Amino acid sequence: LLKKKLLENYDPKLPNIVIKSDVDIPRLEVDLSLGFLKLKRMAEPEQKTDFIFEYQLDWDDERLTWDPMEHCGIDRTYLSREDVWIPDVTVTQAESSLDFREEYKKFVSLNSTGHLIFFVPTVTSVLCSIKVRDFPFDSQTCSIKVMTHSFRSTAYGINMVIPPAIEIASPLKDMGNGEWQVISLSAGLERIEFQDGSIVEIGSFDLFMKRNPAFYIAIVITPSFIINVLCILGLFLSGSKMSQLGMTLTNIMSLTFILGILADVLPKVDELPAIGVYVMVNLALITASLVIVLLLPYIPLPSYFRSRVEKDKTRTEKDKGGEDDEEKTARLKPVNMALLILLELANLVNFLVLVL
C-alpha cells in the first residue's frame, strides 16, 4: 500500500531537479561516498588501471516522503532501481565501468524524509598517465573522476566523500596489490569554466601509489650486475680470443633479451626508464671491454708501462723456465689491471645509481 501511494503520481524518468531563471533554488546535492576501493591491475603499456570501485549515492527526493504514523510506523522501505530516479553519475576518462550485479538485485533504500541510498559496486578501468622515467622505483598518481553530463553545476552537484570508517574497514595497505602500495587517498573537486559562462564540476578520488621494486631487483637488476662483473673479469683474465668473444656475445644477447622484456611491459613514450638506461650502460660497458681487450695488444704502450711489462716477463721466465707465453704475461700488465678496475668501478656505479 505504501509503495502504491508513493509511486502513484511519480515518474522515475523525471529528475528531481527544478530550474527557474528568476528564482534562486538550491541545487540538488548528491553525496558520492567511497565504500570500497581495490587496485586490480595496472597495465603500463596501455596506460590504464583497473579498480574494484564501490560507492554509495545519497540524495533527497521530496516527492517520496510520507508520515510513518499513517503507515503503521514504517520509517524505511526498499524500492527497485527501476522504480525511482537515480542521479546521473558518470565515471569519466574511463575505458569501462561495469556494475556486475544482475538488474533484479539492484535496490534503493528510502526513508520517510525522502532520503535515498543506492549502493553501486563496479569494476572500473580508468586511463592513467604512467610516468616511466624512474621505473621500477617509480610512484604514480591515478584518479577515478566522476561528473554529470546532463545537468549544469548550478542545479546539480556531486560531493566526493571518504568516510572515516573506510580507513578501518579498508586501510591503505590493503588497497594495493602485490606490485603496488597505496600511499595516500584523497578526494578532490575540479571546476572548469567555459567561454559561455557554464561551469562543469569534476569530482575525483586520487590515489598516490608506489611500486614495489623487489621483483625487478631480484630478477633483472642484480643478475645483470653480477653477470657484468664476471664477464668483465673473464675478458681480462681469459687468454683465448674466441672464449672472450663468445662470453661477450652471450652477455650481449642476455641484455638484449632483457630490453625486449622491458619493451613489452612499458608504454612507448618519449622518456627512457631508469632500468632501461641501466641495461644500456651495461651493454656499453661489455662492448667497450671487448673492444679494449681485442685492440689493446696492438696499441703501443707508454714507456713506463712497456718497461714494467718487460720486467714482469723476464721475472716470469726465470721463475718458470720460460714456459709462460705472451698471453699469460699479458694478464699482469698494469694497464690491463687499471682498465679492469676502472670498468668494474663503472659497473658498480651504474648499479648504485639505479638502486639508491
Automatic annotation (TrEMBL):
GO terms for molecular function: extracellular ligand-gated monoatomic ion channel activity; transmembrane signaling receptor activity. SUPFAM superfamilies: Neurotransmitter-gated ion-channel transmembrane pore (SSF90112), Nicotinic receptor ligand binding domain-like (SSF63712). Keywords: Ion channel, Ion transport, Membrane, Transmembrane, Transmembrane helix, Transport. This is Neur_chan_LBD domain-containing protein. GO terms for cellular component: membrane. Residues 3-186 form the Neurotransmitter-gated ion-channel ligand-binding domain. It comes from the Eukaryota. PROSITE patterns: NEUROTR_ION_CHANNEL. The chain crosses the membrane at residues 214-238, 245-263, 275-299, 337-355. InterPro entries: Neur_chan_lig-bd, Neur_chan_lig-bd_sf, Neur_channel, Neuro-gated_channel_TM_sf, Neuro_actylchol_rec, Neurotransmitter_ion_chnl_CS.
